[in-house]
Amino acid sequence: MTPAPLPTLMLIPTGIGCDIGGYAGDALPSARLLAAASGCLITHPNVMNGAALYWSDPRIHYVEGFGLDRFAAGDWCLRPVRRQRIGLLLDAGIEAELAQRQIQAADGCRASLGLEIGPVATTDQPLQVSLERGASGASWGRLGQPDALLRAGERLKAAGATAIAVVARFPEDPESEELAAYRQGSGVDALAGAEAVISHLLVRHLQIPCAHAPALAPLPLDPQLDPRAAGEELGYTFLACVLVGLSRAPDLVAAGPNMAGDLSVDQLGAVVVPDGALGGEAVLACLERNVPLIAVENPSVLSVTAEALGLETPLLKANSYAEAAGLVLALREGLSPASLSRPLPALEQLS
């Protein structure tokens, strides 16, 4: 008999250069494996977005990072839906031809994938995205006109959109050393932190699913391209993966007397996170609730480990996502993870 699903939260923070999850959807294979092991995986766009590539799986719930934080804190629940009506929000700073490419990507998803998309709204001012880099090396960014973003989001929600895909014009420097390093597999995604700022603002303001795709000019061919960056080189837009992810993203509902089928943090059976990125709000909220934490070896520019935080809560450690999937499956089957290792610790004797 197949055991009941074990809702599992998979987090790979944005813009910190993880070996797995720091590129264009390169964490998707790991997410698919964890979804198979758990039967129910909750994760965020950074894990699932592969630019021109994507993977749809009914066992995977696509939830923006701010929504995940509120879910883990117990403020919001996730309500699975059959489909979302996705409003398309375009930055007024996007050039006309590049904006038309985004609309054509949306039309392609309507015609070929059957997604419900529309209406389209353009901000009343350019958003003026700027990119920053923290002392740790993690990327982040700023919006010069955040109110313009929120006004456009409000218009889309009022027009019937139940989720929003955002495309903002990002600054670019095709000759930069950072971009060259990223394309060759040794850098941090310089755009990811600013993307998170945009989606966080909208989700906090509107409480509906949102995700972001940057508008950029195509890059010249790089014969030395790292395979993890290849998904971002396949076309004029990164929008397709966002539209697919949002098409069945769960509704974000206030915690309280909830409907049958809603997912709450009390149902979580495990959290899977890089071992050097344990300081996020969702992780700490889950630790407070004694949700089993699986810390996976997945190097990044951060070193926020259990030791650095002084955590006394015991963690399950995994050398890979394949090993983490085995631990999730053990928890789902009701097996003690300690029973799978040797030597087997002696029983504790109470005095």
Structure description:
This protein has 351 residues and is α/β, with parallel strands linked by helices. The protein has 2 domains: 8-80 and 253-340, 3-Layer(aba) Sandwich (Rossmann fold); 85-246, Rossmann fold, CATH 3.40.50. It is built from 11 helices and 14 strands. It has a 6-stranded parallel beta sheet. A 4-stranded parallel beta sheet has the order 6-5-9-10, with helices on both faces. Strand 12, helix 9 and strand 13 (293-296) form a beta-alpha-beta unit. Helix 5 crosses helix 7 (192-206). The longest helix is centred in the N-terminal third of the chain and has 18 residues, at 96-113. The chain is globular and about 75 Å long. The mean pLDDT is 93.
Shape: globular
What number of domains? Answer: 2
Mean pLDDT: 93
Structural class: alpha/beta
First-residue to last-residue Cα separation: 41 Å
* CATH class value of the largest domain: Alpha Beta
Rg over CA atoms: 20 Å
Largest sheet: 6 strands, parallel
- DSSP helix fraction: 25-40%
- The DSSP helix count reads 11
CATH topology of the largest domain: Rossmann fold
The CATH architecture of the largest domain would be 3-Layer(aba) Sandwich
- The order of strands across the largest sheet is 3-2-1-12-13-14
Give the amount of beta strand, in percent.
Answer: 15-25%
| SSE arrangement, N to C | EHEHEHEEHEEEHEHHEHEEHEHEH
Kindly list the characteristics that best describe this protein.
351 residues, alpha/beta, Rossmann fold, 2 domains, six-stranded parallel beta sheet, four-stranded parallel beta sheet
